[in-house]
Amino acid sequence: MTSSQTVTPDIPKDPAVRPIVSLDHVEKVYPNGSKALAGVNLAVNPGDFLFVTGPSGSGKSTLLKLLYGYERPTSGKILVADEPIADLRGDRLARMRRRIGVVFQDYKLIPKRTVAENVAFVLWAQGFTRKEIHRRLWPTLKMVGLQAKAHCFPDELSGGEQQRVSIARAVVNTPPLLLADEPTGNLDADNSLQVIKILKKLNSIGITVLVTTHDEQLVRISNHPVVQLKQGRLHQLRR
After folding, report:
1. Which run of H or of E encompasses 29?
2. In the chain, what are the domain boundaries?
3. Among candidates 154, 199, 159, which has minimal Cα distance to 179?
4. How far apart are CA 207 and CA 48, in angstroms?
5. Which one, of 169, 14, 37, lies nearest residue 98 by Cα?
6. Contact 67, 47 (CB under 8 A)
7. Reduced to 3 states, what is the DSSP secondary structure of residue 77?
8. Closest C-alpha among 182, 181, 192 to residue 159
9. Are strands 35-44 and 226-230 parallel, antiparallel or unpaired?
10. How far apart are CA 62 and CA 223, in angstroms?
11. pLDDT tens for residues 91-112?
12. Is pTM beyond 0.85 here?
């Protein structure tokens, strides 16, 4: 597949369905001349579950950073929920980011906050009432199997448990789009499967999920579309 083609992991039968993520000839070149993405085209529809694979340094993390507005493309157009995210600033960018859940490989938990406080912090920062925070918090902790750990601190948890806290925090405000950057990269096989099961569960209730990974075994046992980034270019591996 050449870089001029658009990868569409799941082409909708209804032409009225608009992609929740759209990249049109996107390039990302860093100041040192390193090209992370080279003419990437991608369309992801609402409700899709997509794996993005590739070796370290292939551009996977850069792709996700562009999608949640942490970085901006050198050229090309990116739409997230029909919004040109690279053009958003200030409050408009903050509002858009509330519609995107992000799961990081290194968890990014607040060390001196409990599990419940880490997850609730997102809602508190967005101005949710105490009642609404409570209403959302406990079902989310139950979904990731951490009710019993609600009052534990991050250093009292295993790596798999910390990653599940990260997932809960990313989805507690029910975003339509979830980006997971190497969510199993630091986990053993059993914990990796647990994390993928949770992501599948989220996808089953309508959340669009994009997962970057270099774990080929995990991808093989999951029946979801796969694209590969290689030297900054995107290739379809499995529809």
Report:
1. strand 21-29
2. 48-60+89-226+233-238
3. 199
4. 8
5. 169
6. no
7. strand
8. 192
9. unpaired
10. 25
11. 999 999 999 999 988 999 999 9
12. yes
Residue 9 pLDDT greater than 60, yes or no: no
Structure tokens at 71: 């970085």
Residue in 200, 193, 137, 112 with CA at minimum distance from that of residue 160: 193
Per CATH, the homologous superfamily of domain 48-60+89-226+233-238 is P-loop containing nucleotide triphosphate hydrolases (3.40.50.300)
Gap between the terminal Cα atoms of the chain: 13
**How far apart (Å, rounded) are the C-alpha atoms in residues 168 and 109?**
11
Q: What average pLDDT does this structure show over 233-238? A: 86
Can you tell me the distance from the alpha carbon of 47 to that of 99, in angstroms, rounded to the nearest whole number?
14
User: Following DSSP, what letter does each residue of 194-231 receive, concatenated?
Assistant: HHHHHHHHHHHTT-EEEEEE--HHHHHTS-S-EEEEET
DSSP 124-185: HHTT--HHHHHHHHHHHHHHTT-GGGTT--GGGS-HHHHHHHHHHHHHTT--SEEEEESTTT
Strand 226-230 and strand 75-80: pairing? unpaired
